[in-house]
Each structure stands twice: as structure tokens, then as C-alpha cells.
Amino acid sequence: MIAMALLAVGASDLRVIEVPSAQPISRLQVAVRAPADMTDREQAAWHAWLASMRDRNTRYTFTQIAEYGAQGGEPVRFEHSDELILIQLNAPRGEVELMGRLAYAILAQPRVTQAHLRASATTVSTAMDSDLQAAWAGYRGDAAGLSPDDVRRLWLRVVRPENVVFAVNPLGQPGEATKQIQGVFEKWPTGTSTPRSSPPRSLRFAGPQKTALTQWGWSTTTLHQSDSARVLALVALGTGKASSAHRIVREELGLSYLQSPFFLAGREGWRPRFVFGGAAPVPTDIARDALLKDVETWTPSTLARAISLADASLRSDYPLSPFILWPSGPQADSDATRLAWAAYGELTGSAKSIDEVLFGVNQVTVDQLKAAAKSLLETAIKL
User: Fold this and answer.
1) How far apart are CA 77 and CA 74, in angstroms?
2) Fewer CB within a 10 Å sphere, N or C end of the chain?
3) CA 158/CA 347 separation, integer angstroms
4) Domain with 133 in it: what CATH number?
5) Is residue 200 in a domain?
6) Residue 236 has what pLDDT?
7) Where a domain ends, among 174, 189, 204?
8) Is 175 in the same domain as 94?
């Protein structure tokens, strides 16, 4: 077992944003991102650290955190992917300091044992219904010979102000909740960032054994208004049974039985992906050419349908939603979801609210939608 201690800097380095809420409870959202260039060994260390979080730290067991951090009446949310950790605590209105102490223990006082190292090599369990969504969090890294020192070295790279953001519901006066969180983190633990020469690995999918997955990818998007046409085009191409991919690639060409776009929350922003699943890999050139021809037939009704689906995807727990912030899958619009969006947006420079995304997509014209779809298809990279 190892306990970790780091040098401290001032609480002013801590990023805290306040998100208004009318509900009678207080919430604290913590968003943490992994380093951009983790090696396979560091990836395994990341999962060992996550396993320790779900067990205990040097101050609390996870059972205690789940109890203390749910005093507002909602369960603690602790979710993670290969690149992100999202933790949401809640307490009676005004108990911000309590949530801050729990967050400090989770981040600054980890306790890693050999059992956690072994757990890093196990299969990710997930409550997701979609095989394609479940595949997102499935990569474990190289756990052979992993040691507590490996976890400590990674932790030193992660626990830094630029990799962590807190979002909290405000108290009576603006800034009061922020001061309470900063007070808890007065001796904010932080390590030193060590540059790596190894290139960042691509997002990994490890889908169902009988499914051949074909993945297309594009550069990261922020979901700001400048990206709205691109966002809406990916929805029109692949979301729902009336989408181009379902009608053309699945029904007309018979090349796939699963087809879905995703905007996956990553360490630098939302990663646009399109995944086909079939008995054999989908030929990219054939699918691309067929979809380009279909885009030419798009009409105002195509635009209206895409906007409606984007709205449903972001405001409800629509099961086909391509927007995946919580690794467990789509979440309905709520104060809790809005807090998570705010923290993630601040962390990555992305849109900080659902309303911002929907405002942007509602400004898109048919011509812009078609141009964006063509650009996506012509620049898609097979991953």
C-alpha cells in the first residue's frame, strides 16, 4: 500500500465555477482529465488509481464517501473513461465545505494497494445497453508488473490545476461557495508535469466479439456555434432509423447492422466518431460514396429532423443520443447534468451548457448542413 504526498501551491490555482440552481440541495462536480500521451503502462496505472477510488483513500472508505456525499438525497456519481473522471457529490443546501473535504480526500489522499493493481487488469463493467457505447471505456493498458510507484508517477502528472475543474451550486452570495472550496484546498496538492516523447494513442474500441467494428474519426470539436453545422451533419448522417447511414449503408447496401455517430467527451474536447458494426468491416470508399450521393437529396425536412434529434438527445435520456459525457450513457437535462457540462466545458474549453449547443444548431441552414456533411465524409479518417 502507498500513500502519496505532494508539494502544495495556493488555492487560487484551483478552478471553481458556480452554476445557479433553484433546488434545495448543493452539488459539487469534479472533472479530471488524464494526460494526453499516456503509455500503455500509464493507462493501466490510471485504472489502478480508479480502482483505489472505488475502494478507499487514506481518510474515507468509498462506502463512507457514498454516504456522506449523498446527503442531499441523490446518490454519488462516480464515472470514468480512459480519459476522464467525473465525480458528483451532493449535500443539504449550504454544505459545500463537506463536499469539498470529500473531494480533497478522493484526489489528494489516495491509497493504492496490490488489490487495486490487480483490478486494473480486469474487464470494465458497464451499465450501458449499447455495445458501441460500452466499447468506449474498454481499454485497460498493459498491467503486467504494474507497481504502486507506477501509479504514483502517473498521479503526479494528473493532479495538477490544469487537469481538474470544480463546478458547484452557489450559496447566498456569488463567490461564497468558491471560497469554501478554495478554503478546503488551501494547500492544493500538485505534482510536476513531465513531458513525454511518445505519441498519444488513438481512441480504442473493443466491441462485441461477433461484430466487426469500422470506426471513422475527425478532429476534436468544442461544440461551440462555429462547430454547429458539423455537429448537426453527423446527427443527420447517423442518428435514428431515418438517418442516411441506416437507410443507405444498412438497408440499401446491407453492409452493417449497427451504425451510430458519437461525440465522446475526451481530455481535450468532444471526439466525433462514426462507428459501423457488421459481420465484416464496412468498406470506407463504398459507404462514403453512397452517403455523399444521399446528402445531395437532403431537404429542409432533413434539417428539421436533425435539429429535433439534437434537442431530444440533449434534453432527454434519448437512448440513441450521440452526445456521451457520462460514460454510463445519455442523461436527461437536469441540474446535475448542467453542472457536469459546466465543469467539462471549463476543463476543455468546450461549450459549457446544453443551451449553447442547441442555440448554435438552430442557426444552421440546409446549405450549411449539406456542406458540413460532405466535408465530414470527405475528410473522415478510418481509425
Assistant:
1) 9
2) N
3) 13
4) 3.30.830.10
5) no
6) 98
7) 189
8) yes
Q: What are phi and psi of 32, to 5 degrees?
A: -130, 135
Q: Do 266 and 330 belong to one domain?
A: yes
**Mean pLDDT estimate for the chain:** 84
* DSSP conformation class of 322: -
- DSSP alpha helix (H) spans, the chain: 40-53, 62-68, 96-108, 114-119, 131-136, 148-158, 176-184, 228-238, 244, 284-295, 300-315, 335-348, 354-361, 366-379
Q: Is residue 140 part of a domain?
A: yes
Distant-in-sequence, close-in-space partners of 245: CB < 8 Å, separation ≥ 6? 237, 238, 256, 259, 274, 276, 287, 291
DSSP 8-state symbol, 225: G
Residues whose CB is less than 8 angstroms from the CB of residue 18 and which lie 6 or more positions away in sequence, other chains included: 167, 168, 169, 170, 174, 175, 177, 178
What's the confidence (pLDDT) of residue 5? 39
End-to-end CA distance of the chain: 39
| Domain identity same for 236 and 267 | yes
Residue 238 and residue 275 in contact, taking contact as beta carbons nearer than 8 Å: no
- Model confidence pLDDT, tens digit, residues 274-292: 999 998 999 999 999 999 9
The domain of 69 spans: 2-189
Give the confidence band of 14 by pLDDT, cuts at 50, 70, 90: confident
Tell me: pLDDT of 207 over 60: no
Rounded to whole angstroms, what are the CA distances from 47 to 83, 112, 115, 122, 233? Answer: 10, 11, 12, 9, 35
**Which triple of cell numbers denotes residue 42?**
500509464
147 Rama class: left (phi>0) / alpha (psi -120 to 50) / beta: beta
Compute the C-alpha angle 230/354/339, nearest 5°: 135
d(CA 229, CA 75): 37
DSSP secondary structure code for residue 61 in this structure: B
- From CA 369, how far away is CA 233, in angstroms rounded? 6
Decide if 343 contacts 359 (C-beta within 8 A). no
Q: Could you tell me which of 321, 272, 303 has the C-alpha nearest to residue 369?
A: 303
- 216 and 170 fall within a common domain: no
pLDDT at 172: 73
Distance from the Cα of residue 188 to its chain's centroid: 24
